Amino acid sequence: MLKKGMDTSYLLLTCAVNKNIEVANSIQQLSGVEEATPVHGAYDCIVKTELPHDKLHKLVLSIIRPMRNVRSVITLHDAPSTVI
């Protein structure tokens, strides 16, 4: 369940060849990460986070992108709900 003040985001990672499981295991240990799943296809790892956007920005830029076996990161933010 989403905590008040938190935003759900998904990170789509491209990793070095055969390193997606290692990367997912490392990222799973980070604070604010709900899930890190190695996958096959266009991306190598999908990460679910629940963090305010400023903390997510810091996590991606300071911790995840500099990881040795991470090649690229695409961030998908939750869309705010609207009333029609």
From TrEMBL:
This is Transcriptional regulator, AsnC family. InterPro entries: Dimeric_a/b-barrel (IPR011008). It comes from Nitrosopumilus maritimus (strain SCM1). It comes from the Archaea.
